[in-house]
Write a structure and sequence with these properties.
By secondary structure, the protein is of the alpha/beta class. The chain has helices spanning about 30-40, 55-60, 90-100, 115-125, 140-145; strands spanning about 5-10, 15, 20-25, 45-50, 75-80, 105-110, 130-135.
């Protein structure tokens, strides 16, 4: 059976994406809402929730509790909150920019902050693939997945 999710390759073709959707958000309500939206679009697509930028980086590097790639496979998509304590979404995007070996992971930034125009610009400058307002809606996620050529 073909994998339910596909991601765009650099040449524009689609290829299988075996990893889960990672939701990186310190707000449990927002994280569970995003998880529900992804689940509504594709109930078999695996989802992992992480609550900090530090956890996300440890996950990507396979460090600490995330060392087992069978239990914690490399992600196929990241939904990243901007406003988090300690290491916010911008710091995560900067870290990703400084570590190009992780550039293949599509990152969709989520934010409920007012005055988002400047935030959107900064997020794109740091390498975000897309930007969505919170709370996430199914039609918004579906549009982004189509734009990124990820089928669900």
């Amino acid at each position: 059976m073909e994998d339910a999710s596909m991601v765009a390759a650099k040449d524009g073709m689609t290829q299988p994406c075996d990893g889960p959707v990672l939701i990186v958000d310190d707000d449990p309500y927002d994280a569970i809402t995003a998880e529900g939206v992804v689940g509504d679009l594709n109930p078999i697509l695996p989802v992992q929730i992480l609550t900090s930028g530090e956890d996300f980086i440890a996950y990507l590097q396979g460090e600490n509790i995330y060392h087992d790639r069978k239990q914690f496979p490399y992600p196929g998509l990241v939904l990243l909150d901007l406003k988090m304590p300690r290491m916010d979404g911008f710091a995560v995007l900067q870290w990703l920019k400084d570590h190009p070996e992780h550039a293949k992971v599509p990152v969709v930034v989520l934010s409920g902050l007012a005055g988002m125009a400047g935030l959107v610009t900064k997020a794109y400058q740091l390498g975000a693939h897309s930007f969505l307002p919170k709370p996430v809606q199914a039609q918004d996620i579906q549009s982004i997945l189509q734009l990124l050529k990820i089928s669900v």
